Structure formats: structure tokens, C-alpha cells
């Protein structure tokens, strides 16, 4: 029984870990100050970004390096120079919130 519990715990960890790691990069780069997985904050939710934007890696690169204006509403997104090194991981994290 103990072995079974351990196997299930390990399986649960393997499933849960990628999501945690994904969201950590969004928190670290302060994206989640303005964005949330499902709720609109200052910026659109990741769910809305996924629904509206087909090419997430390109959209993230553009938004982070140049900022974004006029796609979701009146509030513009300022560029995020500190996040440039993490663009690929950020795109993956945002895509995990479809
Ligand atoms: C100061 C608030 C703020 C911060 C911080 C912020 N965003 Fe945004 N973001 C916005 C707003 C507002 C929009 C909508 C802009 C528009 O309408 O074009 C947006 C839009 C986006 C979009 C959609 C662009 C598109 O073309 O579909 C992406 C992707 C995005 N943000 C990623 C990020 C990432 C990644 C970070 C962290 C590195 C981040 N944002 C940090 C406010 C913010």
C-alpha cells in the first residue's frame, strides 16, 4: 500500500510540476501584476490572449520588446526589457493557459 501511495504521489508531482514552473516565469517577470490566467486585470487574461492571438511566441516577443497597443482595449502594455531573456519560456507558460 505504501508503495502504491508513493507511485501515485510521484505521478501527481510529474503532472503538477511543469505548470508550476511555467507560472513561476510569469511571476518572476511581473507579467502577473497586469495579467491573470482567467481574469481580466490591467491586461487581458492569458485565456483571452490565447483565444485572440494565433502565434503566441511572436506576440510575446513583440509585446515584450516593443509593448502592445490597441489589440485588446485602450490601455497599452509597456515594453518589458527585463523579460527579453525569458521570451521562449514566457510564451510556453502563456500557451499552457488556453
Ligand atoms: C503594466 C501592465 C502590464 C505588464 C507588467 C505586462 N503586460 Fe502584457 N499586456 C498589458 C496590456 C494592457 C495588454 C493589452 C495591450 C493591447 O491592447 O494591445 C497586454 C497584452 C499582452 C499580450 C498580447 C499581445 C498580442 O499581440 O496579442 C501578451 C502576449 C502579453 N501582454 C504578454 C506579457 C508578458 C509576457 C509580460 C511579462 C514579461 C507582460 N505582458 C507584462 C499589460 C501588461
Strand content: under 5%
Count helical runs: 5
CATH architecture: Orthogonal Bundle
CATH-derived topology: Cytochrome Bc1 Complex, Chain D, domain 2
Major sheet: size, sense and barrel closure? none
What ligands can be seen in this structure?
heme C
Characterization of the model:
The structure is a single chain. The protein has 98 residues and is mostly helical. The chain has one domain (19-95): Cytochrome Bc1 Complex, Chain D, domain 2 (Orthogonal Bundle). It is built from five helices and no strands. It has helices spanning 2-28, 31-34, 46-52, 56-66, 87-95. The N and C termini lie far apart (37 Å). 18% of the residues are buried. The mean pLDDT is 89. The chain binds heme C. Residues 29-31, 33-35, 42-44, 49, 53, 59-60, 63-64, 68-73, 75-78, 80, 83, 90, 94 line the site of heme C (HEC).
In short:
Helices cover 59% and strands 0% of the residues. The chain has helices spanning 2-28, 31-34, 46-52, 56-66, 87-95.
Layout of SSEs?
Blueprint: H1 2-28, H2 31-34, H3 46-52, H4 56-66, H5 87-95
The structure holds heme C.
Notable traits:
98 residues, mainly alpha, Cytochrome Bc1 Complex, Chain D, domain 2, elongated, binds heme C
Amino acid at each position: 500500500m505504501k508503495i502504491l501511495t508513493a507511485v501515485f504521489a510521484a505521478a501527481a508531482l510529474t503532472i503538477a510540476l511543469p505548470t508550476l514552473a511555467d507560472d513561476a516565469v510569469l511571476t518572476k517577470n511581473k507579467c502577473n501584476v497586469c495579467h491573470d490566467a482567467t481574469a481580466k486585470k490591467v491586461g487581458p487574461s492569458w485565456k483571452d490572449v490565447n483565444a485572440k492571438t494565433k502565434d503566441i511566441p511572436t506576440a510575446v516577443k513583440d509585446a515584450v520588446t516593443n509593448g502592445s497597443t490597441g489589440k485588446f482595449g485602450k490601455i497599452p502594455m509597456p515594453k518589458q526589457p527585463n523579460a527579453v531573456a525569458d521570451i521562449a519560456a514566457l510564451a510556453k507558460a502563456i500557451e499552457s493557459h488556453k
